[in-house]
Amino acid sequence: MTMGKSTIIRKADLLHVLDGIPHGIAVLDKRQRVLGLNRFLGALTGYNSEEAMGIYYDYVLRSDLRHKGNPLQGVIETGESTSVEGDIINRRRQKIPIRFTISPIKDSSGKLLGMVLTLEDISVLQDLGKKIHDISRMEGIIGHSSKMQEIFELIPMISQTDASALITGETGTGKDLLAFAVHQASKRSRYPFIKVNCGALPESLLESELFGYTRGAFTGANTDKPGMFRLAHGGTIYLTEIGDLPLPLQVKLLTVLDDKEFFPLGSSKKVKVDARVIASTHRDLKEFVRQGRFREDLFFRLNVLRVHLPPLRKRDGDVRLLIDHFLDVFNSNLKKSVKGLDQKALNILLSYYYPGNVRELRNILEYAITVCQGNTIRSEHLPKYMASSIKKEPPSIDQGSETGMGALDNNAESPDRASESISWTSVEKRMIMDALMKTGGKRGLAAELLGWGRSTLWRKIKQHGLE
Amino acid sequence: MKILIPISKNYVEPRFDLASEVVIARVRNGQILGEPRIILLPGATPEEICALVIKEDVSAVICGGIEEVHYQYLTWKKVKVFDSVIGPYEQALKLALSDKLEAGTILPG
Fold first, then answer.
1. Does the distance separating the beta carbons of B65 and A89 come in below 8 Å?
2. Nearest-CA distance from A89 to chain B in Å?
3. pLDDT tens digit string along A243-253?
4. In this predicted complex, what is the ipTM?
5. Smallest Cβ distance to B15: which of A60, A89, A92?
6. A393 DSSP assignment
7. Residue B24 and residue B8 in contact, taking contact as beta carbons nearer than 8 Å
8. Mean pLDDT across the stretch B60-77?
9. Pick from A55, A61, A89: which is nearest to B67 by CB?
10. Distance CA A65, CA A61 (A)
11. Which among B17, B84, B102 is the top mutation candidate for probing chain A, defined by the most A β-carbons within 10 Å of its own β-carbon?
């Protein structure tokens, strides 16, 4: 928010406008004293604007913000908005859970004039147990960006139905968490949530794992094995990496989805199951369908409800929020008392593009908190590869993965792509060439860009004859 | 009688439940007896602070925000609670000694 100093001083006009907003709003000067409260905040706290005028904000709000690393001071130092969850105790002696958003007020030259503190009463959401906010917090999905809010709003809707759901998104975006959140919010939550990684096992093992077998079905099958579908009876079966499911099993899965019954290996008796199927993948299933690697009918069957989790770099403001969250988590887990990051380290984290998304950010902070011996994380505490990654453009991984589907998407704009047969080898070769071109032929940087080790890149350069 | 005030530096702590420091003053005939005691309570829960109030046989508590459950508990235990007090704790204490302190008092400073 940018406005002139005179505008702040003419707070009567400003507060009149703010009175129309259905959240509590306090305008503070840069010494964190109240310049005014809107009507909603007056009702929330029990103090009116005149009473609160000139008082240090926390004597009026009685929040727990000071015990959460004083984010207002952070906003003064960084000039960046931030959001924190906490609570207040009002004059009626009620403790109210609140989502605080603190935004700086700057003049046209960028000089800090004060702050706007927005208080959103989240008690209704918390009281409703199974509602959006609780679900997301409970399952560890955190985000205030509009894209994540859309996802949170979808969770109760997806939970109410038994239709198959498909969750897509890059690696590390939280597909597993979302699947579990949907299960927890559904009427199936008292029954099992069974996760099966379709990419982790060879076809034959996966089939017995999913559908079970009867005694004597094959050598070594000494007892009956129920299989994951039967274990998930009444609950949810979560098939992760569905894009890696072998074609023959795709047919069998389609049958189960349609008929809710199947034959275990070696059995002549059909087994009925009532399990809700949620699948996820970081791959572009449509592309897989085009390539004949994924059955179209299964794709449509799974694609009834589809949720695409946005990559972290497209979640405005969430990086800062997640940094604060993970600082809390790791301070507690690692018994540390790191209070925050210095400006340089924060800038590096805010401008990094996170190909590994939230998982990568979490790992970076765990590393930094472990390495940091003081109470402020500095840039030298961050993994070394980050220093050279500032402002680096992302390799546009929309449906891709660590293994480089992003480059495939990059090349989608290239006019000659259509004429080229798409095989992994050609994609990989193109990725290497792109990376080398982007880095001016510097192999070390290219390896970093690709997320590979230097030796891996050199080996692949040799393999593709790019020397 | 004794007066307990949860404090934060020189001010009445805005939150009873988050206080990590309290001052206990012994008073008689409107005068403070001796030097008020400051007790550090790192990580204390509001229930522990309430227990301290009872253990120390405190007659009045001056505090900022306090939850209804703790307020009711203290008043049930015959402790007078002046809540929603804003300002320097020494001034609040002086006002209490002269019987002029009320819940919700906002002191200058």
1. yes
2. 6
3. 988 888 898 88
4. 0.94
5. A89
6. P
7. no
8. 95
9. A89
10. 10
11. B84
Phi, psi of A368 (to 5 degrees): -65, -40
- Cross-chain Cβ contact B14/A62 below 8 Å: yes
Alpha carbon A62 to chain centroid, angstroms: 31
What is the SS3 assignment for chain B? CEEEEEEECCEECCEHHHCCEEEEEEEECCEEEEEEEEEECCCCCHHHHHHHHHHCCCCEEECCECCHHHHHHHHHCCCEEECCCECEHHHHHHHHHCCCCCCCCECCC
How far apart are the C-alpha atoms of A350 and A390, rounded to whole Å? 9
pLDDT band at A57 (very low <50, low <70, confident <90, very high): very high
- The two three-digit tokens of residue A293, written as one number: 């690697």
Chain A nearest-CA residue for B15: A62
Q: Which residue has the higher pLDDT, B32 or A459?
A: B32
- For A155, A182, A188, B108, the CA distances from A193, given in Å and listed in that order, are 16, 10, 9, 59
Lowest-confidence range among A213-217, A345-349, B102-106? A213-217
Helix (H) or strand (E) holding A113: strand A112-121
Q: Report how far residue A230's alpha carbon sits from residue A62's, in angstroms, rounded to the nearest whole number.
A: 52
Closest to B63 in 3D by CA, of B99, B109, B19: B19
DSSP letter string, A224-291? -B-HHHHHTTTSEEEEETGGGS-HHHHHHHHHHHHHSEEPPBT-SS-EE---EEEEEESS-HHHHHHT
How crowded is the C-beta side of A62, counted as CA atoms within 13 Å? 32
Least Cα separation, residue A11 to chain B (angstroms): 22
Q: What's the full length of chain A, in residues?
A: 467
Task: Provide the 3-class DSSP secondary structure of residue A195.
Answer: strand
Please tell me the distance from the alpha carbon of residue B26 to that of residue B38, in angstroms, as a whole number.
Answer: 12
Query: Which two three-digit tokens encode residue A390?
Result: 């500032």
Contact flag B18-A64 (C-beta cutoff 8 Å): yes
Does the distance separating the beta carbons of B86 and A60 come in below 8 Å?
A: yes
- B18, B1, B2: which is closest to B64 by C-alpha? B18
* Distant-in-sequence contacts of A111-115, Cβ < 8 A, 24+ apart: A112/A30, A112/A76, A112/A79, A113/A3, A113/A5, A113/A8, A113/A29, A113/A30, A114/A8, A114/A27, A114/A28, A114/A29, A114/A30, A114/A35, A115/A27, A115/A28, A115/A30, A115/A32, A115/A72, A115/A75, A115/A76
Residue type, A328: D
**pTM higher than 0.80 for the full model?**
no
Q: Measure Cα distances from B19 to A265, A339, A398, B45, B71 in Å.
A: 64, 20, 49, 9, 15
A7-11, A132-136, A389-393, B62-66, range with greatest mean pLDDT: B62-66
Q: Token pair for residue A102? A: 């603190």
pLDDT above 50 (res A82): yes
CA distances for B79 relative to A122, A144, B59, B73, angstroms: 33, 43, 5, 9
Of A55, A67, A94, the CB nearest to B86: A55
Mutation target vs A (from B69, B86, B89, B106; most A CBs, 10 A cutoff): B86
Nearest of A104, A130, A135 to residue A117 by alpha carbon: A104
Residue type, B35: E
Q: What are phi and psi of A304, to 5 degrees?
A: -60, -50
